[in-house]
Amino acid sequence: MNMNRLSGRIATLAIVMIFALAHTGHSAYAQSTVAYTYSFDIQQATLPPLFYTDLTYIAHLGAVSAPSVTVNGRAPLSSSYSAATGDLVFTSDQVGAAVISFSAVSAPAGITVNKASLKGNKAWAWSHGMDDNVYLQNQIDLITAKGWRATLFMIGKDVSPTRQESGWIIDQPGLVELIDQGWSVGDHSWSHACGSGQTAAEITKGFAVVQQAVDASNHPDHVVTAFAAPCFDAAYDAPFEALRDGATTLLFNESQGNPLMNVDGADYTSGGETASAMDSTIDKIGRDTGIEASSSGAIATFNWMSANASANRHFWFNTLSHGNQESNLTKVLNSAYSTYGPGGTDELWMAPSDEIYSYLLVRDNTTILVGTLAESGRPTSTATNTATATNTATATNTATGTATNTATATNTATATGTATNTATNTATATNTATATNTATATNTATATNTATGTATATSTTPAQEVPANTHIVLLPLVITP
């Protein structure tokens, strides 16, 4: 084999390598996300004066990352995202323009935003009230120790503006301290008149005493909305209704009705127990006094609510105790906390009755308008591409005479590929072939050509990237005489 033929073979090898590198795959691996915003409006009808105005929302986003939300330009009071359900649950006391921001590999379909039946999207709620001013401090301490709050319903004439003897009676200084801690106070009339004397003055004079305690607290904006008719006396219904529309801030009466309620607006019966329909148009709720006889009744109701709650059924149970009931209340509190509260499944919302009623009022007067989804940014993605070519040529030649021929070829191959993320990848191959022929012998020419190219590109393109591809090109070439 002469030099010309060998040089021609090597030149052909270089051309083949250039062609192979230029036409092998050049797609990029990119796992990137796009930033999105979902914008919608929250509208609210005119509400009566309220202290509690927050509402919980459930935004179903699907598989996203780093979701956040603002309402009226403000961060929510609380928020949490569950990757398991794809739900962002947030609570806000604002209305107006709402914006949810998040990142996702592709645009999510079917985003929805709904109002939660109860605050924090809890399954059921429990409220507890204590009446008549005296021997209540131990029960107050038990509830406070759980991090919970309740309501004190005060008899107006028995409240001293200065006395501080909480061991046996709660007066204005004690009420102020509890209001500062987030507790609620309610009107239990002026003199606890039952059977006769159920007048509007009984309600308004008792209300004025409670309002004085509010005004003296660090929360003068606290709104007294709860009234508890003494002795569950229905004779208070008419004067209460007359005062409900402006003369006072009172909104509901704890005296009549079922203490077990379904806040999703329909009666529900199961296992001999019925939860009555409840919404913000109803201004009378019942009070369960079973705690004063035994702890078992309230605990059984908790178990029933947990077993029967669903996405379309959320319950509210309202209980009552007077003084010296800490023994049974301790058992009820411990069961609720460790089984269904923060120490258990955390499905329970424990709060004063006026907070729960206010929530229903806000919920029922709030409207969520359909929103729009928009891409809000172009993130950075990284692509890495690798191309490898290895070529080996071996020639064995026999000749007569004496000649030594050496041929060296240096070949440079450049491969340029453009991926869908506009990443440009360059591979450079240097190939050397050496042939040596010796006369009167067997002459061996060996050419080994290796081209390896690795390119890393950074682009600023939106997501919708192609999958990763790595291409290995093997180009064997055998040169024969």
Textual characterization of the structure:
- The structure is a single chain.
- By secondary structure, this protein is an alpha/beta fold.
- It has three domains: 3-30 and 382-474, no CATH class; 34-120 and 370-375, no CATH class; 123-368, TIM Barrel, CATH 3.20.20.370.
- It contains eight helices and 25 strands.
- The chain has helices at 3-23, 137-145, 172-180, 200-216, 237-244, 296-308, 326-340, 353-364; strands at 34-44, 55-60, 65-71, 78-82, 87-92, 96-104, 112-115, 124-131, 151-154, 184-187, 226-227, 252-254, 260-262, 268-270, 273-277, 284-285, 315-321, 348-350, 366-368, 372-375, 381-398, 405-418, 424-437, 442-459, 471-474.
- Strands 8, 9, 10, 13, 14, 15, 17 and 18 form an eight-stranded mixed β-sheet that branches. Strands 1, 3, 6, 19 and 20 form a five-stranded antiparallel β-sheet that branches.
- Helix 3 packs across helix 4 (200-216) and helix 6 packs parallel to helix 7.
- The termini are close together.
- The model is unreliable at 3-29 and 379-481 (pLDDT under 50).
Structural class: alpha/beta
Task: Please state the second-level CATH architecture of the largest domain.
Answer: Alpha-Beta Barrel
Under CATH, the homologous superfamily of the largest domain reads Glycoside hydrolase/deacetylase
Q: Let me know the largest β-sheet.
A: 8 strands, mixed
Work out the helicity level.
Answer: 10-25%
Shape: globular
Here the CATH topology of the largest domain equals: TIM Barrel
Mean pLDDT score: 80
Which class of the largest domain in CATH terms?
Alpha Beta
CA-based gyration radius: 40 Å
Distance between the termini: 5 Å
Low-confidence stretches: 3-29, 379-481
